């Protein structure tokens, strides 16, 4: 109870500091001479955010970049960490897996989500059907990993099966399979989990976009005698292009950073590791912060183009409007 | 206008100054006071030699939490009462990373109880640790074997006295089943293999069951197996050379140990009772791994003393109970070589009260006080085995105290992190998953950090 009171005081103090700082800034901005009040307003309100970003984001990023060129003892070792990354067979497997994830997850989640959104559009029970697919989105990645580990669970042929998939296999006369142990297909079984989660996200955004297509265009197409496929190709997809790009890029960024699923399901064993997981393993378990930082840097460079493309696209759309 | 202006200006200012007050007021609160002093115990004569320090404080930091921590704190209550030293204890699951952070930041505890000799050496070389006082060294010379003292010694300087211990390499079995079937507890490695074959031939159960799955640490029980085999077959000298990388990881003697263990854990006829084929070892958790021993679908399970905590509640661990364990046999009968782990009491300060506490922790009194509370063993020779709270602890203490026992610390805890906590584990995983011994050893060897 005493502890609780103490925490409460801390929260109160933090809020008071926040209020105080904002108050102080307002006061100073307000007191600024008229001639540069506009500038003072901009600077006054952006500065705190900029300072916090510099401390919390830019600083560590720069530090990580330097760390990527050092060895275990913190001495500079040039490009050794990168050489290791692109020559060690295990590290190469990690890069290959990340590539597989990045290609398959956005592609399949978006395609499945889009198809689902189109098929249930204006169907009976649309809301319930949507909720079913969206639900996995509400489960944390770790939770999803644990659930799917049980789905894939293995027991020998002579034992009672405890995993859903293996039980099905046995019922249909097959032999139980070590889904998570057999490389390389185990990576695909992990990817399936991410698709299971992300499809709901794609479906909800795309469904909303489809509903935003003006009825006149759809009706005009229908009057012109366009088939369902032609409508989809020439009306639906171009109309929701913006939403499609947002969905694909968002899922791509999320996939590049995937960590929780791999860590809970295989911990990167059995040739299933991805860059984010390997980064953690190297930095915090193998005591090789340099290698971890190098992996983080590569991950950053991989995400960067997607983010830039995303930002550009958003800007273009704003200009059109 | 003028008045309005002042008003507007004053309010935020007042807020800021009130806040500064609030801040300074809450500065130094918190930090749980330790149980502190307590009532003076009945008999303080045993503690007279430590002297008295009224109002002195010693902060202790370690990995030990929950029930274990309570027992640990209880074991120095009398010491606190008689010397007047207040021992402020803090246990954390983040110890391994936090101790480094605190030492670097110049804010270390007075005493840290470190379970990894590697970490201890790191801190000693960085100059954070104070060498142990002469009195502590004398106590350790008296109470512990050379092996144990060497783990607290870095570059010829003795820093930290050992505290508690654990014994690895036990093989768990059900005594009544063995009796029923007429199986004998094997005295040598060969006898163990013969027994394994006998059980496999009878066909009522698989001889072995194992579970190596432990999230990111998957594979570690396999490293214990290998360490047992290296120590027993190649001997302690090779074991030491292996840890210090004076022989490569893919040395033929290490390969032999892998093959000896592989003859069991990679043989479809011998594993994995209750779970399936060889590879099911990797999808079975450490906690589940031994359970088939109890239901009769497997005969033996290799795991350290702490397996006792994995059995269902109410399982009687005794020679005539539900389940019992024998130590993994060596090449010859009676050859006592065991692997295990332990903790070390290292000091970051050299105040007199800290030295007094170090002395107490190295004494037989502490070992007796702690072991009496249960679920602990120590290699302290002054410890009375009769105080152990269960038969297994008693057996382990006797083994540790035996003059003829060669004790070696868990090798993976002594190797660099890149191997001991990474490639050795993942190597075991690949090995069980089908890779050859040669392939795995070459891969681990290539991951050994180059200086």
UniProtKB/TrEMBL annotation, chain A:
<keyword id="KW-1133">Transmembrane helix</keyword>
<keyword id="KW-0813">Transport</keyword>
<feature type="transmembrane region" description="Helical">
    <location>
        <begin position="99"/>
        <end position="119"/>
    </location>
</feature>
<protein>
    <submittedName>
        <fullName>Alpha-glucoside transport system permease protein AglF</fullName>
    </submittedName>
</protein>
<feature type="transmembrane region" description="Helical">
    <location>
        <begin position="131"/>
        <end position="151"/>
    </location>
</feature>
<feature type="transmembrane region" description="Helical">
    <location>
        <begin position="41"/>
        <end position="62"/>
    </location>
</feature>
<feature type="transmembrane region" description="Helical">
    <location>
        <begin position="12"/>
        <end position="29"/>
    </location>
</feature>
<keyword id="KW-0812">Transmembrane</keyword>
<keyword id="KW-1003">Cell membrane</keyword>
<dbReference type="InterPro" id="IPR035906">
    <property type="entry name" value="MetI-like_sf"/>
</dbReference>
<comment type="similarity">
    <text>Belongs to the binding-protein-dependent transport system permease family.</text>
</comment>
<dbReference type="InterPro" id="IPR051393">
    <property type="entry name" value="ABC_transporter_permease"/>
</dbReference>
<dbReference type="Pfam" id="PF00528">
    <property type="entry name" value="BPD_transp_1"/>
</dbReference>
<feature type="transmembrane region" description="Helical">
    <location>
        <begin position="240"/>
        <end position="259"/>
    </location>
</feature>
<feature type="transmembrane region" description="Helical">
    <location>
        <begin position="188"/>
        <end position="210"/>
    </location>
</feature>
<feature type="domain" description="ABC transmembrane type-1">
    <location>
        <begin position="95"/>
        <end position="310"/>
    </location>
</feature>
<keyword id="KW-0472">Membrane</keyword>
<dbReference type="GO" id="GO:0005886">
    <property type="term" value="C:plasma membrane"/>
</dbReference>
<dbReference type="InterPro" id="IPR000515">
    <property type="entry name" value="MetI-like"/>
</dbReference>
<feature type="transmembrane region" description="Helical">
    <location>
        <begin position="293"/>
        <end position="311"/>
    </location>
</feature>
<dbReference type="GO" id="GO:0055085">
    <property type="term" value="P:transmembrane transport"/>
</dbReference>
Automatic annotation (TrEMBL), chain B:
<feature type="signal peptide">
    <location>
        <begin position="1"/>
        <end position="27"/>
    </location>
</feature>
<keyword id="KW-0732">Signal</keyword>
<dbReference type="Pfam" id="PF01547">
    <property type="entry name" value="SBP_bac_1"/>
</dbReference>
<keyword id="KW-0813">Transport</keyword>
<comment type="similarity">
    <text>Belongs to the bacterial solute-binding protein 1 family.</text>
</comment>
<dbReference type="InterPro" id="IPR050490">
    <property type="entry name" value="Bact_solute-bd_prot1"/>
</dbReference>
<protein>
    <submittedName>
        <fullName>Alpha-glucosides-binding extracellular protein AglE</fullName>
    </submittedName>
</protein>
<dbReference type="InterPro" id="IPR006059">
    <property type="entry name" value="SBP"/>
</dbReference>
């Amino acid at each position: 109870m005493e502890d609780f009171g103490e925490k409460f005081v801390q929260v109160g103090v933090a809020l008071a500091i926040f209020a105080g700082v904002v108050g102080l800034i307002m006061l100073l901005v307000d007191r600024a001479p008229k001639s540069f009040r506009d500038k003072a307003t901009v600077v006054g309100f952006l500065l705190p955010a900029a300072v916090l970003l510099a401390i919390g984001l830019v600083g560590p990023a720069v530090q990580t970049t330097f760390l990527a060129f050092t060895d275990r003892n913190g001495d500079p070792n040039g490009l050794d960490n990168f050489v290791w990354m692109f020559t060690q067979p295990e590290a190469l497997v990690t890069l290959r897996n990340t590539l597989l994830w990045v290609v398959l997850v956005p592609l399949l989640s978006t395609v499945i989500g889009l198809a689902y959104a189109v098929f249930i559009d204006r169907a009976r029970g649309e809301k319930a059907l949507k909720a079913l697919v969206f639900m996995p989105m509400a489960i944390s990645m770790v939770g999803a990993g644990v659930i799917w580990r049980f789905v894939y669970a293995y027991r020998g042929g002579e034992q009672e099966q405890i995993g859903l998939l293996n039980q099905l296999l046995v019922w249909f006369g097959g032999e139980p399979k070590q889904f998570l142990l057999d490389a390389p297909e185990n990576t695909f079984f992990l990817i399936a989990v991410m698709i299971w989660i992300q499809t709901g996200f794609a479906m909800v955004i795309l469904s909303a976009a489809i509903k935003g297509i003006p009825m006149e265009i759809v009706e005009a197409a229908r009057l012109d005698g366009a088939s369902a496929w032609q409508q989809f190709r020439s009306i639906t997809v171009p109309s929701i292009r913006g939403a499609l790009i947002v969905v694909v890029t968002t899922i791509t960024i999320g996939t590049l950073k995937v960590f929780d699923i791999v860590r809970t399901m295989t911990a990167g064993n059995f040739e299933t590791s991805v860059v984010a997981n390997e980064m953690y393993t190297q930095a915090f378990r193998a005591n090789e912060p340099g290698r971890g930082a190098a992996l983080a840097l590569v991950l950053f460079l991989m995400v960067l183009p997607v983010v830039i493309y995303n930002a550009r696209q958003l800007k273009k759309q704003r200009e059109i409007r | 206008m003028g008045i309005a202006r002042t008003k507007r200006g004053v309010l935020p200012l007042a807020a800021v100054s009130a806040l500064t007050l609030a801040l300074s007021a809450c500065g130094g609160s918190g930090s749980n006071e330790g149980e502190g002093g307590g009532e003076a115990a009945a008999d303080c004569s045993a503690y007279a030699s430590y002297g008295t320090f009224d109002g002195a404080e010693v902060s202790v930091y370690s990995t030990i939490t929950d029930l274990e921590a309570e027992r640990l704190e209880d074991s120095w209550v009398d010491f606190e009462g008689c010397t007047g030293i207040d021992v402020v204890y803090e246990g954390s699951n983040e110890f391994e990373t936090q101790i480094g952070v605190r030492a670097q930041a110049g804010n270390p505890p007075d005493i840290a109880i470190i379970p990894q000799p590697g970490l201890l050496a790191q801190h000693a070389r960085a100059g954070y640790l104070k060498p142990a006082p002469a009195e502590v060294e004398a106590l350790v010379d008296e109470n512990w074997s050379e092996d144990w003292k060497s783990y607290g010694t870095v570059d010829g300087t003795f820093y930290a006295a050992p505290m508690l211990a654990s014994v690895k390499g036990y093989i768990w079995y059900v005594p009544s089943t063995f009796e029923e079937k007429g199986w004998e507890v094997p005295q040598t490695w060969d006898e163990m293999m013969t027994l394994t074959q006998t059980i496999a031939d009878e066909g009522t159960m698989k001889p072995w069951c194992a579970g190596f799955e432990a999230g990111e640490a998957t594979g570690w029980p396999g490293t214990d197996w290998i360490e047992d085999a290296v120590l027993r077959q190649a001997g302690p000298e090779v074991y030491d050379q292996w840890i210090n990388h004076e022989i490569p990881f893919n040395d033929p003697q290490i390969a032999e140990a892998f093959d000896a263990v592989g003859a069991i854990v990679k043989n479809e006829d011998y594993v994995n009772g209750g779970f399936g084929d060889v590879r099911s070892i990797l999808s079975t958790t450490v906690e589940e791994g031994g359970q088939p021993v109890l239901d009769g679908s497997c005969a033996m399970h290799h795991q350290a003393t702490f397996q006792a905590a994995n059995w269902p509640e109410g399982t009687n661990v005794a020679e005539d109970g539900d389940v019992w364990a024998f130590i993994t046999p060596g090449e010859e009968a009676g050859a006592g070589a065991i692997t295990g782990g332990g903790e070390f009491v290292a000091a970051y300060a050299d105040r007199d009260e800290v030295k007094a506490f170090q002395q107490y922790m190295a004494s037989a009194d502490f070992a007796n006080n702690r072991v009496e509370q249960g679920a602990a063993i120590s290699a302290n020779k002054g410890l009375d085995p009769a105080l152990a709270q269960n038969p297994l602890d008693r057996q382990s203490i006797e083994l540790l105290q035996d003059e003829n026992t060669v004790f070696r610390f868990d090798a993976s805890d002594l190797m660099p992190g890149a191997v001991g906590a990474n490639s050795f584990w993942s190597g075991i995983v690949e090995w069980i998953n089908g890779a050859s011994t040669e392939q795995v050893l070459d891969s681990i060897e290539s991951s050994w950090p180059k200086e």
